[in-house]
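Quick start: read one record
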Amino acid sequence: MNLSALAERIRAIRTTDVTDTGAGLIVRDSRTPYLKLYIRPTGQCRSRWEYPQPDRRGRIPGLTAADAAAVARMPRRTVDLGAFRLPDDLSAATDTVRRHLDRQAFQIAPHRLHHPAPQPKVLQTYRHLIDDLLDPDVPDNDPLVVRGRALLASALATPAGPNLIAAFVDDEVERLTERRQPRHMPSIRIRYEGHDRSAVRNAAALLAASRTVLSAADPRRLDVMLTTLLDLVNRVPDRVLAANRMSRVEYAPALALIAWWSQQVPRS
């Protein structure tokens, strides 16, 4: 493979930086700090996250304090994403590199997968995030929105993820019925290491028994809720799901419950 020609094509990708070492290419992407893609002359590629050692104050350049703390808890600072081979055709090889970088930019980076926050913090973050996303004066790149997405993503990237979505459904029901004490907080008792799915069934039963709230819900709020949670679930890396012995299919019942609710709401 002509690495020089490939390097020029990859450099044309707006977010990339390419280093030709003489023995191969090292590709970096501005959207994914500390991710490197190594390309050998044979077309063999290996992609991995490489994090530096935090300094004496626990800081890593370009990362927040929480992200750096997540890196410090990793058993290794290198996260291997595996190897793959590029097609011999330069255009096809460039497209393969672009798709790989886009996929990694879309998925949750290892340093963003923090230890899940306590239940009350997750619920509070969910409420604030949905409210902010519904507010036309709050941009999607607002720091509070970005941090909220990261915290929810970390919580959803656990075996308790489907139960958390069920908890959010319960919270929406409680909000509509104006009850002061959310019932689901003590009843669900989310354990991040568990695979219990009873919370999803309970949320479905609660919603089915609360016909009065079906038509009272704000369809736009439900749409934003579904779109946001679906986006976050899709961003959970495959390797994280595999480590938890899960698949994305396990989130489907809880997400389908929101979609069903949204369909019951009258649209103007």
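The two ends are 58 Å apart (CA to CA).
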